[in-house]
Amino acid sequence: MAALCESFTLCGLGPSGGVGLGGGLLALEPGPDPDHVLLTDRGRTATLFKVSDQKPLGCWSVKHGQIITCPVVCNFETHEYIAVHDDKVLRIWNNKDINLDKVFKATLSADVYRVHSLPNGGPVVLFKGGGVRTLDVLLEAPQQEIENIISDEVIKWSEAFMEGQQPVLIFTTEKDGDFFVYVQKLKMNSLHKYKLEQQELSKPLSFTAYIKNQIITLLCLYSNDSVYKVLIPLQQNTEEEEQILSKSLLLNLSVSGSVLKGTSFVVLDKDHVAVLGSLAASGEESKECLTIWNTKFQTLQTSKELPLGTSGQLWCYEEKFFFTHGKVLTVIMYKCETSSLAAAVGKLKDSQTPDVSSFVNWNTLGDEELVVSFQSQQSVALKSESKMTLRSKRNTVAKVQPDTLSVGQLLLNLKDASTTAFEDELRQLMSKAQMPDFQATIGCVITALINRCKTNPKYYPRNFLLQIVQTRDLSYSLCPDLMAVALEKKDVHLLQICLQRFPDIPEEITYACLKVFLISEAYLQRIDVNLESVICYIDIEFNNKEVKTEIVENGFNAELEQDIWDTKITKETHLTSDGEFCPVGPQKAALLNAVLHSAYSETFLLPHLKNLPAQQAVLFLRYLYYLYVKCSEKINTTLPGIRSPTINQIMDWMCLLLDAQFTVMVMLPDAKELLSNLHKFVRAQVRFYSELNKIEGSLRELQRLNHQKDSQTYSIEVLELI
Amino acid sequence: MGEFEVHRVRFFGLVPAGVRCLACQPRGGRLALARTDGAVEVYNFAANYFQEKVIPGHETRSVEALCWAAGDRLFGAGLSGEITEYDLALLCVARSVDGCGGPIWSMAANSSGTQLAIGCEDGSVKLFQVVPGGIQFERNLDRRKGRILCLSWHPSDTHIAAGSIDFLRVFDVCSGQTVQRIMVNYHVLKVRRECIVWSIAFLSSGTVITSDSFGRVQFWDWQRGTLMESHTVSTSAVLSLAVSEKEDSIIVGTSTGATYQFQLLPVKMGSLEKRWVRTKPFQHHTHDVRAVAHSSTALISGGLDAQLVIRPLMEKMQKKGYDAALRKFTFPHRRLVSCARKARLLLFQFSQHLELWRLGSTDETGKDGEVLPLCRMPEHLVQLKSKGPEHIYCSCVSPCGSWVAYSTASRFHLYRVQYEGDGVSIKKVPKVPKLLLPAYQLQFSSDSGSLFVASARGSVHVLQLLEPGGCKHLHTFRPPSGSPEAVYLLASSADGHWLAAVGGDWAIHIYDLKCFKHHCTVPTYSCAVTALAIHPITNNLVIAYSDQQLFEFSIPEKQYTAWSRMVQNCGLHRVWLERDSPITHITFNPKNPSHILLHDIYMFCVLDKSLPLPDNSALLMNQSTLKQLPETARQRQLHAFKICKKFQPLLFADLLDENCLVMVERPIMDIKTQLPLPIQQKKFGT
């Protein structure tokens, strides 16, 4: 649960800094160290505060007649402060400077909108015309020409992030009621312009954004008391005409009849936003409030009334809210914990549990979720219909159907697009995460990809497919053609991943995979396969002696074998425990392990196994025998490693294979020796265990004797210390 | 590193005496404990519960109650009818006063520690004033029939609650009158059985808590004389009871060996109404829990099975550390065994006699873990009985085996032992010098030519042993600045040049035996010394402290050695520091100068100074791992601590020669068989 904690006053504000329209502060920015903030008022002054001490550490002001037009920021790398006054004059100073008149000054050629300072990227200057420069570039030639990009649009809001090593700047502009979003990547010097999807009768009041996994999430507070979410993928190669950004409803700011008229808001974590605004119940006077909302459960978590009024601005740094309240700047600390049922009943574990797979469960979709899903569908459709009220479930489902189709429609439209554009588009589609029927969309995406592969035999997006299969929770039934195509292309790595991840592979496909794995030989060496299931027990050194191994086995003297069983058994077990080499290379072993691990039903698999060519059957049986021997070496009869086959799986497959190929095996001279070895080994095992059973009582007695020996009052023993 | 031939000795028939009573020093860091044989021990909480002081028992001096008064003065009272004050510096009885009321069953000091109340056999409660230099009889309170088994002062010192058979009484201290008399057996009508109030506690709220022989813990309102709550915790008697200083928690001990904690908890979350709730049961003992104590962070219980159990309250612990560990002490923190290395003899110290044994031998060798066939069995040579009621303070056998010395509270004995073939003759040395007694520790020099006697006020006497059987006093060392405390540990160097002595103030003084003068003092360390020894070759003094730190001090150079500084810089392994029993003996291997051999109750360790210290990520007890590794892989895994936990509980370990060790074990099971049968409890069925 999120909660607001105690509040305190950071400082009093002058007449211009107080409540009311046009009042308030210019901005509050983080200071050079933690727990420090830089406050810029709407006049001439900037002040540095240490928050926990409620103490100003420094104060700087420009001359009379000048006015600071852009919030003072701190360059985190050099610990210098940067300010712009009178739109064009840039000042840079540090802690020791007292008089701003005497510090570094540069007059620029265009009006500055804002300076953004990034922790690792240095400051970035955004001009009112939309031009962007890093401070370093700007200082080299302060009078350089700054282009005007946005013509007569007006910048409403801007924000900067670091994406990897490069700074990314996002700003929104307005012109005649239309809102535009610009994303500028500085290093690549690329600029993207988007148009924000229009919303009837309301317009965005405030923006905030964060970046995660190469996707900018832009949140907009609209005048219809709702928060919308817009996803903007950063990976964008095409520089086409301006795209329209669709938005989805994140939060409706209304609680039991009363509506919160938000003025500004901040994101606290993935489930929480804080909104400052006035709460108006019908027929009552509105009260200004600071509120924390949970977007996951769509609930108001906590609120605090602010009777003295605010300037409508809200900042949040280091788990503290800052806002003006009456004539003072107030700080409130908050706590924000991930809300979950577990937390509510006090069973929350420290470690975050991995995200549970998000298959759509149609039965549990409640009405509320359907509203969300419906609206997101609406936005995907790119055609906003008139808002509908939902009356019955059936109605909704009926409505959803055409929308899913519209995803299909979109994919259909892309059918003829160029390969890169096609993949881009799909990536973008996938970036619309958190859609409730996301799984279905992924299924559509894969189907589209596969269809493209089928029509264009040269096209095979290996890495893209691999990425999708590895990162999403898919199943065979969701993309039935995927494995078929992979089989056709002999993409064994993808097949391995599919075998490991899909819970519902038909036996026919499992068999096909097995066959491909057993046959494919030479080129396996080069292929990157996940080896984690084999490296713990296979002797990698031997893998290039593969052929030699077989010679050793085949060259085993068959006549000797006819000798008395018992002596042979000891020799045989000796041989297997010391010198048995893996009959297949590690890559092939890993692939076969994936097959051993997959789920199957004997009845359905058996008919297919009968079709396995004899050579492959023998090789597979040999490998199973090898695994069985390896298992039996350990007292706990388990193989080390992740996803390594269990002894039960090995035995089941062995029996299955023998059942399916029995006649062939009996006839085949190659297999004869293998079968007899196998037989002897199994028999030895059975004997060994039955002997152990017999002497169990004696072993227990030995243990007891050992204890008795301890009870002697005197003994001389040997102790070795190393 | 090497193989040892280990003489595993289990014939030391020590049976530690049961714990009779416990007393936590109010607002202090010490716990006083009395055993059924009359011995009194003091444990220091700050020094990791080290058994700091031991006053050996006395045949006629049983202790039924102990209490701290006037700060750090310790009083005991017992069935002899006397109140005894103990001198904790000289570790002996300071003075005794007759209570004049027959056997004393109980004693309690008031909260300010100025008055003592005793409960006597004749049913009287007597008050004594604690004055400097003793106690003074003040007056009798209202006397009625029935022995007073337990007593408790109200924290405001105005009233005393006293438990007797079938009833409890409350006295007004000012008037001396009985102001309340409560029958405790009222609720048990069907059988006419007497109900013994074994223990009582008086809370500041006016609640009187009693524990009785019916297994009940009862809470009474003394003014109204009504029963407020009654909890039956056991089918047998609840023998002991102790309240925490905050009065929000109590611990009771029962005759089945179980202890229970009761806590005063709100009925509902946030409610003001509180009730006593039985919260935690513990079963650490097998026999009667005769004594319990409640420190601020731990529940302490002592039973007739001789165990002292300290169970920390985890809710009071800030972090996992030394204090947070459950600890059980059964054996003393000092050694009762001495060894004549050359003669292969062991001397065992019992409370009132000594036993001298000769070790057996073998002429075979074997591999690790093998038991070798014996060609000679061990032999019990002599049993020396101490005359008189006093218990033995200390004893020692000389390295050559021909001298045995021991001391009681008032007498010092030296014997000359002669071995003629299989026979042994023992002769008392007639005229021993008159020394300040008792002796707290005895140590023969390595050439068996002199005997060092640790004595009171920091002094050490040096006696010269004369053939064929005599001795004379040579010198007495005293710390240059004086000390009130007795010396409790001694170590002499193999070359006969140095002697190190530790007193109760934990200062280590080193004396020069060649010119009989004080050599230096080891820098003070704020913890108790548990063992020390001087290296035979380098003359480095190795010191083990009760916080498990190890120091090495070079006597010739009068400073810590480089290795010691290195150990302090790197820090010892976490597991080593978290061990809960102190190192009780240190010895060396002359053939391997870099080896230090040390042991505590649960492990034997060879510390190889030439190897790197293990860091916290390494496995400290790595012997079994090393044994599985091939020779080549071992080298990387080796570290300085070679720990063997095979021999437990280990009372003594010493090196006889280069690769021959002697380990004296005392299996707990062997002690248990010596104890009376515990109360039979049904486990299954009807």
From TrEMBL, chain A:
GO cellular component terms, A-Z: nucleolus
Annotated coiled-coil segments of the chain: none
Record domain Nucleolar protein 11 N-terminal: where: 1-335
Nucleolar protein 11 C-terminal domain location: 409-721
Source organism of this protein record: Haliaeetus albicilla
KW Ion transport (keyword) present: no
Classification via InterPro entries: NOL11, Nol11_C, NOL11_N, WD40_repeat_dom_sf
Official protein name in the record: NOL11 protein
PANTHER family reported for this sequence: NUCLEOLAR PROTEIN 11 (PTHR15633:SF2)
Keywords attached to this entry: Activator, Nucleus, rRNA processing, Transcription, Transcription regulation
Cell compartments where the protein resides: Nucleus, Nucleolus
Principal subcellular localization: nucleus
GO MF, one annotated term: RNA binding
Example GO biological process: maturation of SSU-rRNA
TrEMBL record, chain B:
Gene Ontology terms: biological process: maturation of SSU-rRNA from tricistronic rRNA transcript (SSU-rRNA, 5.8S rRNA, LSU-rRNA)
PANTHER family found in the cross-reference section: U3 SMALL NUCLEOLAR RNA-ASSOCIATED PROTEIN 4 HOMOLOG
Protein name: UTP4 protein
One Pfam family per UniProt: WD40
Gene Ontology MF, one: RNA binding
GO cellular component labels: 90S preribosome; small-subunit processome; t-UTP complex
Superkingdom: Eukaryota
InterPro entries found in the cross-reference section: UTP4 (IPR046351), WD40/YVTN_repeat-like_dom_sf (IPR015943), WD40_repeat_dom_sf (IPR036322), WD40_rpt (IPR001680)
Protein source organism: Haliaeetus albicilla
